[in-house]
Amino acid sequence: MRVIQLARNPNTYTCRSYLLLGDWNQIDAVNTLIDPGTDGYILDEIDKIYTGCGKVAIEQVLLTHNHFDHAASADLFRQRYGARVYGWVPGPGVDALLKDNQVLRAGDDYLDVLHTPGHSSDSVAFYCQSQKLLFSGDTQLRIRTVGGKYTRDYVDTLIKLANRQIDMVYPGHDEPFDSDVRSIILATLQNVRNSEIV
User: Fold this and answer.
1) How high is the pLDDT of residue 194?
2) Rounded CA gap, 50 and 55, in Å?
3) Is the predicted pLDDT of residue 187 greater than 90, yes or no?
4) What is the predicted pLDDT for the residue at 91?
5) Would you state the pLDDT for residue 93?
6) Packing angle between helix 181-193 and helix 152-162, nearest 10 degrees?
7) What is the DSSP string of 87-111?
């Protein structure tokens, strides 16, 4: 599976969007977009990427959550490509609801759907076990200090992620990273547990 990080509109608050393709653009690969963002800024960029002969550029859109900066343009991808939109909860343009531990084909590989409440109650992450990579959305994995208030759901989310082998993280806003992922998650878990749990 190839992961292409798409450009963000420099004039609009939006998330990072990721295009997932098969390594060789095979016919059975499912061209997938994770988090389309606020507007249709990435549409032109996608149209310039070779996504396979005779294939639809985007077959499915996966939402990490329904906040506007991640999901507002989902309907544009339904209209332009006929893409099916998946989200945890109903929302504008959502065709199908995700379930915890559901497995979806993306590119030429598979993603596990992980419900990761904390940032929002409808937050999910997508985990590719074979490549040990995680699309974390806005789930905060790096909290460096003690203090603040966190929900019990967020603690459970960190435990769930700490129990996965993750070598690469593609976040919703920050740069992707592949260094000491498990140590970062465990340090965050410790800092959160030493803060106020509400």
Assistant:
1) 96
2) 10
3) yes
4) 86
5) 86
6) 150
7) ESS--TT--EE--TT-EEEEBTEEE
Planar angle of CA 189, 89, 13, nearest 5 degrees: 70
Alpha carbon separation from 99 to 34, 104, 115, 129, 154 (Å, rounded): 16, 10, 8, 17, 18
Name the strands in the sheet holding 2-5, side by side, starting at the edge strand that comes first in the sequence.
2-5, 18-21, 32-34, 60-62, 84-87, 96-97
> How does pLDDT run across 88-112, given as a tens digit for each residue?
999 878 999 999 999 999 999 999 9
- Residue 61's DSSP bridge partners are 33, 85
Q: Please identify which residue in the block is written with the tokens 């002969």.
A: 53
Q: Rounded distance, CA 143 to CA 60, Å?
A: 32
Confidence of residue 54 (pLDDT cuts 50, 70, 90): confident
